[in-house]
Amino acid sequence: MSTVTSKSTSSVDMTKGNELRVILGFAIPLFLSNLLLQCYSLTDISIIGHRLGDDALTSIGSVTTIVDLYNSLMWGMSSGFSVVIAKIFGSGDQERLRKATFNTAILSVIWALGISVLGVVTLKPVMRLLNTPESVFETGYAYAVIMISLIGFMFAYNVLSSLLRAIGNSRAPLYFLLFSVILNIALDVLFVYVFDWKLKGAAVATVLSQAVSSAVCLIYIRLKIPELHFGRSDMKIDGRLMSDLFSAGLSFALMFSVVNVGTIVLQGAINGLGEDIIAAHTTARKISSLCMMFLGTLANSMATFAGQNHGAGRYDRVRTGLRKTLFVSMGVATFEIVMIYLFGGMLVKLISDSDNPVILGTAVYYLRFDLPFYYVLAVILITRSTLQGLGSKIAPIIASVMELLLKVFTAGILVGLFAYTGVAMCEPLIWSVCAVYILIVFFMDKRIKQGKTSSREDPTISSRCQ
Questions:
Q1: What is the Rg, in whole angstroms, of the alpha carbon atoms belonging to the chain?
Q2: What is the pLDDT of residues 360-378, one digit of tens each?
């Protein structure tokens, strides 16, 4: 790539303008991307279930937690890269931005190869450890080994999209994702229906669509985003940049994977409560995941916003942006709580397609218990992401480990004492404890206390962050 110093019209400087308007302008395309992924997931499952039957869905379900764990390691690493790139972009140092892009590419290749090899080597032992039923073991393995061995294509798309989001461009990744989803569905039909490749066809369709989308995204960056071009003079391994990128990425990756492990532990306790409870909880979690989506989107947007303003030394904007974003999140949570209390039963019936009163009643009970604590969840997600945007690496990991330990404790104690009510109590209790910790860490940050700095910061400051 050629060396340039100009900025494209596709990037957004989040260090200027009304804080809330900038954050929401970034968040809305990101939210639509997440919503599109949810819609695609439901469509994909529908195609596979209709063509291949319940056994195919059981096979996918048997390895979903494993594939999700490796996906979280990939997604976390790309998210960490994004925070560092956003900070450097906010500092206005174009030369360092190009060098950081090159070093990101090198780290991405190494990480993708390492995770894919680790995943393939450990796949069967992990499946055995999770007591995967023999009836679906081989089909589940055949599906998962394709997804994990070629996970680098998904990672490439995540990294390229994260680079675009780091410079404030959340619209282009939405368009590329839409293209990927349409292509994936078309390939699902071709490979599963026409070629009759069964579950392997579904896996190949997913990987191939991600590979094509990555190529399209790379072409777009080459043609439209000069900030992310690097030339020969930029193609140098920078130890400090590598350290910043890897430590930030590892922080996110560990955070996401620890949360996944905690979810697996809690699911193990739920599995002992009977099939009706499992079905009810699965349905309730689908609805709660949709409800969490916009809060998660606001949190991701704050990470980029804080990262750019961190690079510019505009901590006054970080404080103001956080306050305004939390205010919006409280309004979102209030709306969702009202909707669940008024129409929760209708939503559960629509998602579960069941007339079983135990399933319907239990799912509604969980949602009505869980949703009021979204006020606390909003504080955790948005404040934690703000800290990560400011370069904090240790505090988010500590919060995630706290969540894991508390899930292990509640799964072993509360579920035993209160049955499914213990499950409903679990996350609200964890959120409340973690929120206190995150808020203490945030308000103890000296940069937040000091407020605005007079000039753009030294872009190496992240090495001195917590």
A1: 22
A2: 898 899 999 999 999 999 9
Q: Which two three-digit tokens encode residue 351?
A: 């998602």
pLDDT tens sequence across 127-165: 887 777 787 788 889 989 999 999 999 999 999 999 999
Task: Please state the three-class secondary structure of 358-372 as a single string.
Answer: HHHHHHHHHHHHHHH
Residues with Cβ < 8 Å from 164, sequence gap 6 or more? Answer: 10, 170, 172, 173, 217, 221, 225
Residue 249: count of CB within 10 angstroms of its CB = 28
| Nearest of 49, 383, 414 to residue 202 by alpha carbon | 49
Give residues with Cβ within 8 angstroms of 259, minimum separation 6.
72, 400, 403, 404
If you search the block for the tokens 């949190």, which residue do you land on?
299
Burial profile 22-59: b = 16 or more Cβ within 10 angstroms, e = fewer = bbbbbbbbbbbbbeeeeebeeebeebbeebbeeebbeb
Q: What is the pTM for the complete model shown?
A: 0.81
Give the sign of the dihedral formed by CA 272, CA 275, CA 281, CA 282: positive
Q: Is the Cβ–Cβ distance between 430 and 401 less than 8 Å? A: no
